[in-house]
Design a protein that fits this description.
Layout (H helix, E strand, L loop, with lengths): L1 H37 L7 H14 L1 H12 L4 H18 L3 H19 L6 H19 L1 H18 L4 H17 L4 H7 L11 H25 L1 H13 L7 H6 L5 H18 L18 H10 L10 H28 L13
Length: 357
C-alpha cells in the first residue's frame, strides 16, 4: 500500500508536474530565445520587434513554469493564477537554480493553496493570500540555497577549465549537457562563470575551449534526444527537442534513467573532440555556451565570436567542419547508434521516449 502511495506521488510531482514545467519553460524562455535568434536577421524594424518579444519571454519564465505546474496538479483556478507571483519570485531568488526552485516551491504552494481553496465564503481573498504567502516564504528560505547549489556546478566547471584539454572537454561537455536537461539553467551557469574567451585577460584560450565543449555537450543532449526519439515523437518532437529543450524528456528520464545513456555518451565523445581535434573556441556571448541548439544559439554564438573582431585566429574550413560535426552530425549518429543497441538489450523499450501530449 505504501509503495502504491509513493508511486502515485512520484508520478504527480516528478512526472506530471515536471513535464508541465518543461512545457511552461518552452512557452516562455525557450520560445523567446528562438524569437531572439530570428531577431538577429537584419531586417529593419522586424528584427527589433522580434528581439523585444524574446526579451519578454525570459522575464515571464518563472510565472509560466509555476502556472503550468499548478495546472498539472489540477489545482483550482485561484491557486493557478496565484502561482504567477510565486513562480516569478521563486525563479528570481533561485538564480541559476531558478527552474528547480520553481518546481519545488510551486508544488508546495499549490498543495497548500488547495488545502484552503473553496473552503470559506471569502475564497477570493483566502486562497490567493495563503498560496502566495506559502510560496513567498519558501522562495525566501529555500530558493537561494538551491541557487547556491546550482552555482556550485559552475565552480566545478571553473576548475575543469584549468585542466588539460581532453579532461576539460570531457568534464565540461558532460556536466553542462546534463545541466541543460535538468531543471536548472545551464545558460545562467555559463554566463555566471563567463564561459567565453571574450573580454578575459588570462586563460582566455582555455576558457574559450571550455565554452566550445559546453556547446558540444548541450547539442549532444538536444540533438541526441530529438533524433533517437523521432520514431515515437515524429517531426513535432524533433523540432521541440532539437531547437527547444531536452528538458521535455525529464519525466521519461525519471521513469527510466537508462534513456539518458546515449546522449551522455555522445557528449563525452564530442566534448574532447571539440577541444582536442577541432579546437572550437567560444568568443561570443558566454550565455550562448549553455544554449546548445535552442534557437541554434550555441552554433550562432560560435560563429558570431569568429567574426566579432576579437577572435585570435584565422577561421578555416576545419572550424566549419568541426562546428557541423560537433553540433549536429555526431550527436545524432552517436546517440541513435547507442540507443538502438539499448533497444536490442531491452534497456530502452518502445514508449520510453514518448513525450507527453
Amino acid at each position: 500500500m505504501k509503495k502504491e502511495v509513493l508511486k502515485k506521488y512520484a508520478k504527480r510531482y516528478f512526472i506530471d508536474a515536471m513535464g508541465a514545467m518543461a512545457l511552461g519553460l518552452f512557452a516562455s524562455l525557450l520560445i523567446g530565445t528562438i524569437f531572439k535568434a530570428l531577431g538577429m536577421i537584419p531586417i529593419p524594424k522586424v528584427s527589433v520587434f522580434l528581439t523585444e518579444i524574446g526579451s519578454y519571454g525570459a522575464k515571464i519564465a518563472g510565472p509560466a513554469m509555476a502556472v503550468a505546474i499548478a495546472y498539472a496538479l489540477k489545482a483550482h483556478p485561484l491557486v493557478i493564477f496565484s502561482n504567477v507571483l510565486v513562480g516569478y519570485m521563486a525563479n528570481e531568488k533561485g538564480g541559476a537554480g531558478g527552474p528547480l526552485a520553481v518546481l519545488f516551491i510551486a508544488i508546495a504552494a499549490s498543495e497548500i493553496g488547495m488545502l484552503v481553496s473553496k473552503k470559506t465564503k471569502v475564497d477570493i481573498l483566502v486562497t490567493p493570500f495563503v498560496t502566495i504567502l506559502a510560496g513567498g516564504l519558501l522562495s525566501v528560505s529555500i530558493a537561494p540555497p538551491i541557487g547556491i547549489a546550482a552555482s556550485a556546478v559552475g565552480q566545478f566547471i571553473g576548475w575543469a577549465t584549468l585542466q588539460q584539454p581532453f579532461i576539460m572537454g570531457l568534464i565540461v561537455s558532460v556536466v553542462i549537457g546534463i545541466a541543460l536537461t535538468l531543471p536548472i539553467s545551464s545558460a545562467a551557469i555559463c554566463a555566471a562563470i563567463t564561459l567565453s574567451g571574450i573580454a578575459l585577460q588570462e586563460n582566455h584560450v582555455g576558457v574559450a575551449l571550455a565554452g566550445g565543449a559546453a556547446i558540444a555537450g548541450c547539442c549532444a543532449q538536444m540533438v541526441g534526444f530529438a533524433v533517437m526519439s523521432f520514431k515515437e515523437n515524429k517531426w513535432g518532437g524533433l523540432v521541440s527537442q532539437g531547437i527547444g529543450t531536452s528538458m521535455l524528456q525529464m519525466p521519461n528520464i525519471v521513469r527510466n534513467p537508462r534513456i539518458w545513456i546515449p546522449t551522455i555518451v555522445a557528449s563525452a565523445i564530442t566534448g574532447p573532440l571539440s577541444t582536442c581535434v577541432f579546437g572550437l573556441k567560444m568568443y561570443g556571448a558566454a550565455i550562448n555556451s549553455g544554449m546548445g541548439t535552442c534557437g541554434f544559439l550555441g552554433p550562432i554564438g560560435l560563429i558570431l565570436g569568429w567574426f566579432g573582431g576579437v577572435y585570435p585566429e584565422q577561421v578555416t574550413a576545419l572550424d566549419w567542419v568541426g562546428l557541423f560535426l560537433i553540433c549536429f552530425i555526431l550527436p545524432a549518429v552517436i546517440s541513435l547508434g547507442i540507443s538502438e543497441l539499448l533497444y536490442k538489450i531491452k534497456w530502452i523499450k518502445p514508449g520510453d521516449l514518448k513525450l507527453q501530449d
